[in-house]
Write a structure and sequence with these properties.
Elements: E1 2-3, E2 29-30, H1 47-62, H2 67-73, E3 78-83, E4 87-92, H3 95-104, H4 106-117, E5 122-127, H5 131-136, H6 138-147, E6 152-153, H7 172-187, H8 212-223, E7 233-238, H9 244-258, E8 264-268, H10 269-281, H11 285-295, E9 298-302, H12 311-326, E10 330-335, H13 347-353, E11 357-361, H14 366-380, H15 386-395, H16 400-417, H17 423-430, H18 443-454, H19 458-461, H20 468-485, H21 489-495, H22 501-514, H23 519-531
Parallel strand pairs: 4-5, 7-10, 7-11, 8-9, 9-10
Antiparallel strand pairs: 1-2, 3-4, 5-6
Length: about 525
């Protein structure tokens, strides 16, 4: 049995240049003696030749992995840029894709190369951000790789095998401090409140049961602002770091896209105060008033509670609010508390802030926190295992900014130290202590957590009583018993006063349906699960 090596299938036939030691068409090669292909380093493949070889490799890959994985990690992202005597170099568009390929698909690539070229090669993967340059200019890619050698990946290097590439002028402790400083900058951002951040949009705002009302309302305002819309005045409040400012910028970006003729003023209360003080100092208060009363179509003030105890500024704000509201302009405010709870603010200002729709944002549940982490990791080109996301989300529960900051710290450390991160390193960097052995959760544990939350005696929840509050608590207990413990309907029914399985089915279905629209119930469930 013999075969002929099919290089002519994808290489151009050049009589004056034969970069590979390819046998002539008349020669036969024994099957057990495959050709030893040697690249003449004085010659290079053309862009067309590399493209043809790369296409063959990708075609083989397409048949080896699922369509979804191929589309995500290889299609229009994975390019052959150099073929040497012992090594094949590919480029990808992001660090995230490089990490995924190195961890999961390197063996498939080697198999595809061997199938296409008839022998095995060493594989090298580099990150090049511009897809256009990858597909059209091989030389610029190679120059980029030479000028940025740190971007070239070693083959399937594990965290344990990773070598540190340290600046001798900077100790590891100093590098760790550099990572820490990036985290602090994110947690305590310097807000000037006057520049719309184009990266904060509705598309990358993670929606969960705790913020769906605020998101839907803000999106409605963005599509139809002012008196023609449903909410000419909108007030969003939450604890710090839960996404209020993100929504403000998302609204601004959406309005700019849908209504480019409208003039948007996005500012913090502190900047509003400084602007007014400067206008008084420069004896130019008329210009200050004219700006807001005559030029602004959409007024958005972040952290409006910072106007407390500023009587003069509150007075100006009161008149600006009235004038813009009467003209049908759009008004949006954010705060860390509802209007009724802000101390040091005049009653007339408080009433104006309460005129429109007041919505709040609660702390994200575990699923939402994990989704936020994965989205942020994608943006940072940071590759982490699923259990790391769960670990972080389980330990940082109340603040989205802190969640994102944890990833910024990890990404900075991984880049500075040139290592892949493992669970032990993540715990150490984020100060997460090893958790004690998880406590056992039973039907009784769930029922007592429900009883404590609703302040209803456990005996009443398990009784035949049918009061509304008792029934709600009982239904929540049954729902959580199914969700958390996966207990059978019979087991749950017996525990809750000897009820039959149809009662349990009714309770679970009712709670499931209410969760789609009942924000209060969503928060009740979130609080109970956190306690468990």
């Amino acid at each position: 049995m013999s075969e002929q090596f099919p290089f002519e299938h994808f290489l151009s036939n050049k009589t004056s240049m034969n970069p590979l030691n390819i046998p002539s068409k008349n020669n036969k090669i024994e099957e057990n003696n495959k050709p030893n292909i040697v690249l003449d380093q004085s010659e290079k493949f053309s862009t067309d030749e590399l493209g043809a070889i790369g296409t063959e490799i990708l075609n083989y890959l397409k048949g080896s992995i699922t369509t979804q994985k191929y589309s995500t990690y290889f299609e229009n992202t994975f390019y052959l840029v150099e073929l040497g005597s012992e090594k094949v170099t590919f480029s990808v568009t992001t660090q995230f894709i490089k990490n995924v390929i190195n961890n999961s698909y390197l063996s498939y690539i080697k198999e595809a190369i061997a199938n296409t070229l008839g022998r095995t090669y060493e594989v090298e993967i580099a990150v090049v951000s511009s897809k256009e340059s990858m597909s059209s200019n091989k030389n610029s890619i190679l120059n980029s790789l030479k000028s940025s050698p740190i971007q070239v990946a070693d083959i399937a290097k594990s965290a344990k095998e990773a070598k540190f590439s340290l600046d001798l002028n900077q100790a590891p402790e100093e590098k760790a401090k550099s990572a820490e400083s990036k985290y602090i900058d994110h947690i305590q951002p310097k807000k000037n409140g006057i520049q719309v951040d184009t990266t904060k949009t509705f598309d990358n705002f993670i929606v969960g049961p705790e913020n769906n009302m605020a998101n839907a309302t803000a999106l409605s305002v963005a599509k139809n602002p002012g008196k023609s819309g449903k909410y000419p005045s909108l007030y969003i409040h939450s604890s710090p770091g839960l996404g209020k400012t993100h929504l403000l910028h998302a609204v601004a970006n959406e309005i700019k896209s849908n209504h480019p003729h409208l003039v948007i003023c996005l500012i913090t209360a502190r900047e509003f105060l400084k602007e007014m003080i400067n206008s008084i100092r420069e004896r130019n208060i008329d210009e200050f008033q004219k700006k807001y009363l005559e030029r602004v179509d959409v007024l958005m003030i972040d952290d409006i509670h910072e106007l407390k105890n500023k009587e003069g500024t509150q007075n100006e704000f009161f008149h600006i609010f009235n004038e813009l509201h009467n003209k049908g302009k759009q008004l949006i405010f954010t705060s860390d508390k509802p209007p009724k709870d802000i101390d040091g603010i005049e009653e007339r200002v408080r009433s104006r802030l309460s005129w429109g729709l007041v919505v709040d944002i609660g702390s994200p549940n575990l699923e939402t926190r994990i989704a936020i982490l994965k989205r942020k990791a994608f943006e940072l080109d940071l590759f982490l295992q699923d259990e790391v996301y769960t670990l972080i989300a389980s330990n940082i529960t109340a603040n989205i900014r802190e969640l994102e900051g944890s990833l910024i710290k990890l990404q900075a450390y991984a880049d500075l130290m040139n290592v892949d991160l493992e669970m032990v390193q993540v715990k150490d960097l984020l100060g997460i202590e090893s958790r004690e052995e998880a406590k056992i959760i039973t039907l009784d544990t769930v029922a007592r957590a429900v009883s404590q939350h609703f302040k209803i005696p456990l005996a009443d929840i398990k009784s035949k009583a049918r009061g509304q509050h008792i029934t709600t608590a009982r239904h929540v207990g049954m729902y959580l018993s199914r969700k958390i413990l996966n207990a059978t309907q019979k087991e749950i029914g017996i525990f809750y006063g000897g009820r039959d399985h149809t009662s349990v089915i009714h309770a679970v279905n009712k709670v499931t349906g209410q969760l789609r629209t009942d924000l209060v119930l969503s928060r009740d469930l979130f609080a109970i699960e956190n306690n468990l």
